[in-house]
Amino acid sequence: MTVTPVFETPYERAGVITPGLPILPHGTERHPVPGGGSRAVPVYKGDEISVLDREGLQKGELVFFKPDGTSDAAMLGAASYGRPDGVISVLANGSRSGAKVAKALDKAGFDLGKGQAIRVFSDGSNPGDMATFHAECDGLLIVASPGGPMAPETQNPPTELILYIRRANPGEGKGGMAPPDPLADPIHDINIQPGNAKSYEVKKGEYIQVLDVQGRECSDFQAFALRDLDKGLEREIDPTTTRTLMGLVYPAPGIFSKYWNVDQQPLVEIVQDTCGRHDTFGLACTARYYEELGYPGHVNCSDNINKDLAQYNVRPRAGWPAINFFFNTMLDETNAIGMDDPWSRPGDYVLLKALTDLVCVSTACPCDVDQANGWNPTDIQVRTYGASETFSRSVGYRKSAESELEQTKETGFHACFARHTRDFVEYNGYWLPNSFTNHGPVAEYWACREKAAIMDLSPLRKYEVTGPDAEKLMQYCVTRNVKKLAVGQLVYTAICYDHGGMIDDGTLFRLGEYNFRWIGGNDTSGLWLREQAQKLGLNAWVRSSTDQLHNVAVQGPKSRDILKDILWTAPDKPTVEELGMFRFTPARLHDFDGTSIVLGRAGYSGELGYEIFCHPKDAEEVFDTIWKAGEPHGLTPLGLAALDMVRIEAGLIFAGSEFDDQTDPFEAGIGFTVPLKSKNDDFIGRAALEERKAHPQRKMVGLEIEAGLVPSPGDCLRIGKAQVGQVTSALKSPILGKNIALARVDVTHAEHGTEIEVGQLDGQQKRLKAKVVPYPHFDPTKERVKGNYA
């Protein structure tokens, strides 16, 4: 039976909407099942079990085991479809979720080979379809979202299912949640109630997890080297030393990840951070703070720390400097330090690694007189784990405010690029190389301009758009005229909101009459497409394939020479040498039996270039094949720092720099993506864009900077005292031998040759002389992109 009960609704109280806080009713649990993955969850008699197909067209399979180890589909009121081949295949594919399920089955002693399969959505489903069952007895439920690797030329990605369990006996509601499961078997597992502090010892190499159980709760953290305390020396984490050595307001997973004491000894490093918003400026809350607010005698973190550290003979302090995890500090233009509700959600945490033997102390802040804890102090969970555990570095990522947390991922090409660098930075939920050892951004830049470079662009978001109404959906949602897009062609376009502000820019591939692939910079655009399909009632599906398609770009004058001898295309498809601009083709490595890829003639460098898409499992083979062929041509890896250089010279825009949701495509410099005259059909934002084009206010321009200094993004542009625009991107151009910038200015001052000044310091005291020039600064006629290097 397919039903659509509503489990989740936006949380709202007195006009304040908080999508990031729990919105499930008491007694209801939510368990995401990843595409190609599985979950094992205990269920009890009377529980209601619902499986949601979020994106559509995803088959699901369930297996229910009774406590005696037998499997009986009838205990969920369902028919058996025989052997659970879907679950078995998922457990055999080596995924992390499958390993956990296999462990649960092994622990319970259940034989999956004797399980009875219950299948859902096997006849196809729409986004939001839900199948519901009721448990007739206690047992263990296995839910799988089956699906194998998606070939790059196909459009059948395995996607996520959501398992909801509405407990028949949820227990008494206590106004809060239980802590999530530990990351591993903990050494310490301490619950700290608000208004308390707890100290604990941690050995070198062990891990410390500070977890916000309910969300919106701050926790002061401090650590001492045990060796120093034994000598009577108090050398705790010093926020000022830490900020100075790391160059950050607070450390983050990656290279600049350590917290230091005043002797410049690293004490802990951040390994994982799912929140990404903390404080290193203020003291732990003090008695004086509350007294000055009119609350004498209010319990406070500094006094609590003093009491608990007394056992180590640590001298008391009136106010403790501390790392205040989850505290939301901000600095305004008047240099005032302010605060707001924490960003942390229920279950958010930081994971630290001890770099020496430590004495640590953690608090659960008691502040209930302001927004420091969202006006409602709750508990903190502290867990420590053994040094033998393995935890990968990661930063929390969410596709939207309502989405579940995802840890930073490695692309399929990560290990290949890691042979050449350790300098990786987090980008949109993935680790990407920033620069390469023995090269550096300038050398990588010149390789792209003179020979060839290979870069990892796998974090680009891919969405498969299919169905009879796929063209109608895309025609309505993007600014380009999709009806003119031929099979085998791709087009660069924008997606806008109703007011004309940009959601994203990206490329649209046409794979067939009813088949498209959207490749954008963020998930917002893909989620927007799916939302519009449902809103309009269109017979079209929008399914995420980002995890099924990873891609590298090979860019530069030698890119065609590198690829032409290693890629095979079918006789009815263009060869590498024949492939035209903004065209793509299925291809294979070497020959007919080679690994499948999709090759696109496009790039983000201003040079002749190609993009190669493959399944992550094939990424290493693809990279090694390209690398071997490219070495004689001087192929060099290229990181984000060098990529920024080539794209600014070529006038290519970047989200958050040249555009945001307040910027229309004309203001972003890509007005050519909005063919208002030749596209007669209506599309989202058309009316606003017609008005904006008729009455422009800002324009994207190029700047040449007379001074030897490179402006910073966001620097103001002034004529006299008046601000008339701002710099969006800038660099010292190696090939042009001058400092250049992209900037958005008032149309009154956008004429070529206009003299303008870049304001620095306070925007008035220091000025860099500049003038407005045509852009792109480099190869404005795109001859190099066309492959014309003569």
What does this structure look like?
There is one protein chain. With 790 residues, this protein is an alpha+beta fold. Helices cover 16% and strands 31% of the residues. Strands 12, 14, 16, 17, 21, 23 and 24 form a 7-stranded mixed beta sheet that branches. A hairpin with a 2-residue loop joins β26 and β27. It is globular and about 75 Å long. The model has no long low-confidence stretch (mean pLDDT 94).
Considering the chains and any ligands shown, give keywords for the structure.
seven-stranded mixed β-sheet; about 800 residues; alpha+beta; single chain
Q: Indicate the low-confidence ranges by residue numbers.
A: none
Number of helices: 14
Q: Summarize the biggest pleated sheet.
A: 7 strands, mixed
Write down the overall geometry: globular
β-sheet strand percentage: 25-35%
Please outline what is shown here.
The chain is of the alpha+beta class and 790 residues long. It is 16% helix and 31% strand. The strands form ten sheets. Strands 12, 14, 16, 17, 21, 23 and 24 form a seven-stranded mixed sheet that branches.
Secondary structure layout:
Layout: E1 2-3, E2 12-13, E3 16-17, E4 28-33, E5 38-43, E6 48-53, E7 60-65, H1 85-91, H2 96-108, E8 118-120, E9 129-134, E10 139-144, E11 161-166, E12 186-192, E13 196-202, E14 207-212, E15 219-225, H3 226-230, H4 239-246, E16 258-260, E17 266-273, H5 287-293, H6 301-309, E18 323-325, E19 328-331, E20 337-340, E21 349-354, E22 358-364, E23 380-385, E24 394-395, E25 409-410, H7 414-418, E26 424-427, E27 430-433, H8 441-450, E28 452-456, E29 461-466, H9 470-477, E30 490-496, E31 502-512, E32 515-520, H10 523-536, E33 541-544, E34 550-555, H11 559-564, E35 567-568, E36 584-589, E37 596-600, E38 609-614, H12 619-630, E39 635-637, H13 640-649, H14 686-694, E40 698-705, E41 716-719, E42 722-733, E43 738-746, E44 755-760, E45 766-773
Parallel strand pairs: 17-24, 25-27, 28-39
Antiparallel strand pairs: 1-9, 2-3, 4-11, 5-10, 6-9, 6-11, 7-8, 7-10, 12-23, 13-22, 14-21, 14-23, 15-18, 15-22, 16-17, 17-21, 19-20, 26-27, 28-34, 29-32, 29-33, 30-31, 31-32, 34-38, 35-36, 36-37, 37-38, 40-43, 40-45, 41-42, 41-44, 42-43, 44-45
Helix pairs in contact: 8-13
